[in-house]
Amino acid sequence: MAARKSAAKPNVSPEELKQYYRDMLLIRRFEEKAGQLYGMGLIGGFCHLYIGQEAVVVGLEAAAEEGDKRITSYRDHGHMLACGMDPNGVMAELTGREGGYSKGKGGSMHMFSREKHFYGGHGIVGAQVPLGAGLAFADNYLENGRVTFTYFGDGAANQGQVYETFNMASIWKLPVVFVIENNQYAMGTSQKRSTSTEDIYTRGGPFGIPGELVDGMDVLAVKEAGEKAVAHCRAGKGPYILEIKTYRYRGHSMSDPAKYRTREEVQKMREERDPIQNVRDLLLQGGHATEDDLKAIDKETKDVVNASAEFAKESPEPALDELWTDIYSDDVPQGDAIDA
Ligand SMILES: Cc1ncc(C[n+]2csc(CCOP(=O)(O)OP(=O)(O)O)c2C)c(N)n1
Ligand SMILES: [Mg+2]
């Protein structure tokens, strides 16, 4: 099955298209700033950037409704921004400051927002997959019509726990969209070297889970596929798999010299398939925005990102006695109070 082609005529309003442009640009500029702060020594530990993959989360968030949940791996900054988490809180967490989402104690890979239904940020490859099914199990039990987006990579798709989860999610008809973000590499290993079959979206077949291959460089194709998947889940038909073909422009993490692929490969993708440039072209060619409008959006976005870096730098490091907090939960929801 071939990847979807970009809709010749976007089936969204010019305002929506502009919003996707703004949301994708925010992620890109945020990640560029995070890369700079890392280089300056202001961010420590692991840091995995999402540059190149922006259309995946922005397209799927466009298909989500209030109350839907999301859970992902360590490459998580884009997911947080796309679901409406505050860039200040995310940047402050990256820099290990008190104003961060985990009070500076979690860092890049461990952030959560109950308000935005974002359940992390997980450093163990594939571990979020059963957790995502668990979130969907709760929603199924509560019959609240919510759907969980469970994101994982092409590398994670080779893990055993993914298939145990597929089995359970299918048998219980859980409302979960398994989103395989196929950026074509798992650390330094290409999909070709690690994965026995090319079409990962077919791997739900033995469990009775339908799957679809989606062009992840085209935000409109992602939104359309997301709507279809979500409708399937909300209709009580069980899980759905979206394999979203995308590409990461940067290394696996900040410490990756990226010797396993050529500069030309990355350059070609940037020049020919960039998801932000694609929407930029649609806006300009459709007469929905002028160069000046887009410049203004760019400036707004940079201002938000610069402000988040300032906020992070000004926020103090967590106090020493924070070492003893947030170890055991003292806020366990009970019965009706469960966050539905
Ligand atoms: C259980 C486990 N094994 C190995 C690792 C080391 N590791 C971190 S990321 C990664 C590659 C995952 O690739 P993929 O699932 O394609 O996600 P991507 O980084 O491309 O987003 C590996 C092997 C880990 N964190 N956890
Ligand atoms: Mg990958």
TrEMBL record:
Reaction(s) this enzyme catalyzes, per UniProt: N(6)-[(R)-lipoyl]-L-lysyl-[protein] + pyruvate + H(+) = N(6)-[(R)-S(8)-acetyldihydrolipoyl]-L-lysyl-[protein] + CO2
Gene Ontology annotations of biological process type: pyruvate decarboxylation to acetyl-CoA
Domain Dehydrogenase E1 component as annotated: residue spans: 23-319
UniProt superkingdom: Bacteria
Required cofactor(s): thiamine diphosphate
EC assignment: 1.2.4.1
Sorted UniProt keywords: Oxidoreductase, Pyruvate, Thiamine pyrophosphate
Molecular function terms from GO: pyruvate dehydrogenase (acetyl-transferring) activity
PANTHER family: PYRUVATE DEHYDROGENASE E1 COMPONENT SUBUNIT ALPHA, PYRUVATE DEHYDROGENASE E1 COMPONENT, ALPHA SUBUNIT BACTERIAL AND ORGANELLAR
Free-text function comment from the UniProt entry: The pyruvate dehydrogenase complex catalyzes the overall conversion of pyruvate to acetyl-CoA and CO(2). It contains multiple copies of three enzymatic components: pyruvate dehydrogenase (E1), dihydrolipoamide acetyltransferase (E2) and lipoamide dehydrogenase (E3).
Protein name: Pyruvate dehydrogenase E1 component subunit alpha
